[in-house]
Amino acid sequence: MTIQTDQTNRMAAASQAAQSSRAIQSIQAARISTDRSAYVTRTATQTAVLDRNEPEPRASSSPPGPPGAPEGAGGLDGLDGLDGLDKDFQHQLPGASAVPDPPAPSGPSGPSGPSGSSTPAAPAAQPNTAGPQTPDDWAAHLRETAPSAQTAALLGALESKKLSPRGRIDALAVLERHAAWFAARQVHLLADIAAHAESAPPSSERDIDTQLLNNGDYATEEVACALRISNATATERLQIAKELAGHYANTLGLLEGGEICYMQARNLANACRVLEPKAAARVETAMATRMPTQATGQSSRALRRQVIKADPEGYQRRLELRTKEREIVRYPQDDGMITWGATVPADLGARFDQAVDAHATTLVVDGRTLSQRRVDALADLILNRPALPSGSSASAESEAPQGLSRRPTTALVHVTVPLDVLIGVSEDPAELKGYGPITATQARTIAFAEGTIWRRLITHPKTGLLIKTDPATYSPTAEAERHVIARDQQCAFPSCRMPAQRCDLDHVKEFDHDHPESGGKTVPENLIPICRRHHLMKHRGNWTVTRDAVTGITTWVSPTGHIYLNTPRNYAE
Q1: 277-288 and 249-256 are packed helices; what angle lies between their axes, rounded to 10 degrees?
Q2: In the chain, where are the structural domains located?
Q3: Which long-range contacts (CB under 8 A, 24 or more apart) does 172-176 make?
Q4: In whole angstroms, what is the distance from residue 324 CA to residue 357 CA?
Q5: How many whole angstroms separate alpha carbon 274 and alpha carbon 195?
Q6: ∠ CA 203-205-210, rounded to 5°
């Protein structure tokens, strides 16, 4: 009896397991079907983008390829990795060929319409060669197309070996836009994970464990495990996701469209956390038009300025609190090195920087680079300037170590302050060279400090671009240099942030040494600051540069033919 019962139990368990297996398979099939339906569904925006290049139906299975290529080598068939895509999906892609519906069955008297009447069949569609035909064409096309599930399915087909140098640059940009799209999808998932954890009912057992851990902690730990990141990073990712999804829909939309990178979205969420909702909304609105055209560093600077404008009093309060937290920082590095510095208010840091630069110019060069001399100057200023007892003075005859100097230095701090801010009418931020936006209070403190020298900068009332300088001295070469440095602030190459005072001043239109009157003029309109690296690249790397004297925009054309723009500093922002 016991044996029969065990057998019965085993049979029942096996039957239950089989039913469970069939149920799981059914669920999986339903999920696959759902995913497949979602995969080929296009949003209205995606449809508008894709349909712009949708060809008319045609009889052949693929558009023709380049001249001399075998039949069927063009269009989608020219890209590996597309054979496994759903045929209906392939037909939705720009440049893809569409297979016409099969003809209606013929009646006794010939082709018939739906009612069986004698209606001539529609003529066969003519071939359409519009749309991308080669891997390079596809890379260029996808670069200008908003990322989506459909375009993501094509990424594996952009093989580097099948692309030209120009095509590889386009493909690289395509992947970067899709990286932003994938990051946005992660933000949605993380926001839902956080919301689910926060909405879950609390545990009924109020022991020490449940007091120390809540549902959010469990979600954080699992996200950390799933993404193989630290607990602290997982906590931040969840927090950023909640803020982007809950408060900054426009920024999240830009990220999903591949218009900005995740770091820009993250920086905005972090910076706006200290603001009231209305002020944060104003900052997001202002940044929405800036971030898509700016590098991450440029948008970070603009973001700081907008946060100051949104709440200048709050920014000043936070500055005062942070000033009390000033400290020396040190971070061990590999190979016996260390990063050493200090966390201080921006204006004090600028004075440190300028003092080091000024002292570095007094050192013997002896083969050392500027960076090396700056470090040695810092060491000289710290180690060879010991604190002296009250009433004593340093000996003028004391000997400095070899290669170092005892010459006194002066720190020059450059701040651009609007006149209404200077007289206290406005609290808009000012600009500290080498740092970026600072509060009006900081700017006025620097402006009215003992020994300050004022120079006037005249800007265009509408564009905010610098149009003239009014220096204390009028040496033409010195004024032109001051003007260009004040106008551009940094290297004119789009991705470079080297300060302009450390750059070469280069003629946009080349100066003709044999016939100066026919070459480029040595005037601010024809001068741009370029760091030594990009200066050499411009002259030896087949890059071409032009500058619009009206807008101030510098246009760079790379050897692959791609165009990159560098926008000048707008003092009105």
Answers
A1: 30
A2: 172-323, 455-566
A3: 173/143, 174/139, 174/142, 174/143, 176/258, 176/261
A4: 27
A5: 22
A6: 65
Q: What residue spans of 452-546 are helical by DSSP H?
A: 476-488, 532-540
Q: How far is CA 195 from CA 129, 199, 219, in A?
A: 49, 6, 10
Cα–Cα dist 407/362, whole Å? 7
Tell me how far apart the alpha carbons of residues 63 and 76 are, in angstroms, rounded to a whole number.
8
- Mean pLDDT in runs of 10 for the chain (573 residues)? 47 53 48 38 40 40 39 46 47 44 44 44 50 89 94 93 95 97 97 87 54 67 93 95 97 97 98 96 96 91 93 93 94 92 91 89 86 93 69 46 46 71 82 81 81 68 62 51 87 90 87 74 88 87 88 92 87 66
pTM greater than the 0.90 cutoff: no
Q: State the CB neighbour count (10 A cutoff) for residue 372.
A: 13
Neighbours of 200 (CB within 10 A): 13
**Torsions phi, psi of 470, nearest 5?**
-130, 80
What phi and psi, each to the nearest 5 degrees, are found at residue 416? -100, 115
Hunting for tokens 């239109």 — which residue is that? 509
- What are the tokens at 471? 């220096």
Burial class (CB in 10 A: 0-12, 13-18, 19+), 62: buried
Cα–Cα distance measured from residue 12 to residue 29, given in angstroms and rounded to the nearest whole number? 26
Degrees to nearest 5, angle at CA 309 with 307 and 311 = 70
Would you give the DSSP letter of residue 432?
Answer: E
User: 336 is written with which tokens?
Assistant: 């016996």
Query: Please, where are the H alpha helices in 153-295?
Result: 165-199, 208-212, 215-227, 231-247, 249-256, 262-272, 277-288
Would you say 549 and 525 are in contact if contact means Cβ atoms under 8 Å apart?
yes
- In 79-160, the DSSP E strands lie at 106-107, 110-111
Q: 426, exposed or middle or buried, with CB in 10 Å at 0-12, 13-18, 19+?
A: middle
Which residues touch 464 (CB under 8 Å, ≥6 apart)?
570, 571, 572, 573
Helix axis angle for 249-256 and 231-247, nearest 10°, is 110
